[in-house]
Fold these 4 entries.
Entry 1:
Amino acid sequence: MNYELMVVLKPEVSEAELKAEVDKIKDLITKNKGEVAKEEAWGKRVLAYPIKHLTEGIYHLLNFKLTPSKIKELEKKLNLDDEVLRFLIVCSE
């Protein structure tokens, strides 16, 4: 199935850390036999409300294909990641 993942990362991560973090998320998808179709960096934006006392976050959007049974595993790994403030995975079909 096709999914969209919007992830909000901590604003203080450097460009190199940001790239490493996004690559790590893409690796999680591909290791579960998924395929990343599209990727968009939205950059740093003001949050609608403070999260963990932060008022800004770095937004990144990924469109990918993955079997529905693997979504819970991806969510679990994203929840454990310290650099991720928030994320949302929605089915785009």
Note: The beta strands are 2-9, 35-51, 54-65, 84-91.
Entry 2:
Amino acid sequence: MSNLKTMSLADLEAKVLENRKLLLDLRFQKKLGNQVKTHMFRKLKREIAMIKTLLNERET
């Protein structure tokens, strides 16, 4: 979390997009029946939520 606070707005927005893409890839891999690290779903969702919270805090 501390490294997220030091990132710029553009970097944070890019990180959200990257995490969403990874989440989508994980979903596809799971549907295809491939081995997936299921803990990554929760980790990515939480990181997206943390970044969005930081972005909202910086807006106000």
Note: The domain at 2-59 is CATH 1.10.287 (Helix Hairpins).
Entry 3:
Amino acid sequence: MTAAVAGTGNWSITRLAQALEKKELSSEELTGAALDSIDTWEPALHAYLSQMREHALDSARASDRARLADEKVSLLSGIPIALKDVLCLENQPVTAGSRLLEGFTSPYTATAVARLKAAGMVFVGKTNCDEFAMGSSTENSGYGPTGNPWDPACSPGGSSGGSAATVAARSVPCSLGTDTGGSIRQPASLCGVVGFKPTYGRVSRYGLIAFASSLDQIGPFTRRVEDAALLYREMAGADPMDSTTLSDPVEDPVPQLSAGVAGLRLGVPREYMGSALSPGVRAAVEAAIALYQEQGAIIEEVSLPSTDLGLSTYYVIAPAECSSNLARFDGVRYGNRLPSELAPLTEMYLETRRKGFGPEVKRRIMLGTYVLSHGYYDAYYRKAQQVRSLIANEFSTVFSKVDALIAPTSPSVAFPLGAKSDALSMYMCDVLTVPVNLAGLPGISIPCGFEDGLPVGLQVIGPRLADAMVLRVAHAYEEASGWKDEAPKLPHTLTTGEAL
């Protein structure tokens, strides 16, 4: 750890970029420190499935050379970042947390990743996740669970648990995850970091290993709301490789961040503040609501009556899409093939999928295949799509009265690994996040306190395409609350301030 890097533990991306621009530190030093910090945390956390040490250092040196030559570079150039292992980067491993893709190397780069690469960001590694992004604890990874930096015996949430954990540990200043039913916001809440899910279609899904294509969305984990806005601004926009991306102009959220919330109408959904909340979560969120009032926001209680239907609707639609998307993993085109090539074709299909997929993936494939089957399609899948429309319409009605919604992100703080052994209790972790995905809305989780030493997350939800408003409302709370500088205790081998 060089003297230049020491003490940058809670620096924002903007401050790191300023230091790089002034040549107070180099990207190579910053990246080396990130890689060293990852190595230090890995025995306790297992946040990474692969690291890219040489690739990262080469990219960092290229960024440094550009600055030394006084070339014009992006604000993000030279900043280390980690990628959830469902995002493709050319010539690098991508497994989606599955043994089925063990040893597979991506032949191309995801659009969102390519845009950050073009900005000069430095990719340090691929982070652990629930297999094919199916889970809420990162325990469904085919390569073992990830621990929470606040307590490694607890879950970091999921499915993007590794991405959340490495940012919480201050190993890297930012990472990318994906959110299908809360898989950015829920782990951000449990790890005490910022996690932003943009409006569906704002960030291209090209190069993302799909789980549920009408729900998946790529977004950032950061330490600051401003950092999330910077990454979103770089990634967002239409992409000819993804027909679901939106052609509407992308509103730059950064200039609006400091506008505050005075005069804004913020709704608190009655159904999100129910009895399922733990006492500490309720107290932290109520304190956050009071702080918004102190800043001049107008707080109104609102109702989203179909909230309790969100989870069951999601667990019809998402598995149905998963069943279709994962049909391509048959041992012929991607990943491992079992048994030998001389075996009958049907036996090869069955054995490859039987041994390659984990229990949760198999459960969702079977559920999805069932709800799409003849005689059940109308009763389940079509009905779920109708309820999805109902949920979206209820959000639209509420947003005709308020500018944004504030609510808990997760009903509880991080739970011990292995504590939720049945599927239903695990699915309930997403009860406050899945409605946002069903409606395609932007949402963010920001730290808002603690319960028993573990972080609590506050969720801000906005209307479709109001990503800038969501970030603005979140930034106002972050600046007023002071939670942004809270960090987990570092391993004994590091001293305060040495982690990035």
Note: The chain has one domain: 13-307+389-485.
Entry 4:
Amino acid sequence: MTQEYDIKAMAAKIKALRTNAEALKEISGGIPAVDRNVVRILASVRMLEVDISDALKVTGK
């Protein structure tokens, strides 16, 4: 049984994660805990971007 994935929808959601994390950092007012956690979030988002871009190349979607 083959499973279908909506790679484009995933890419859009990942882009929204990046946008929201960056917006959170802008309004954080320099709160160290928020800024550090946003950096961690963005690192995870980057890994998702790499993974999904590879999947897009493989599937050609």
Note: The mean pLDDT is 91.
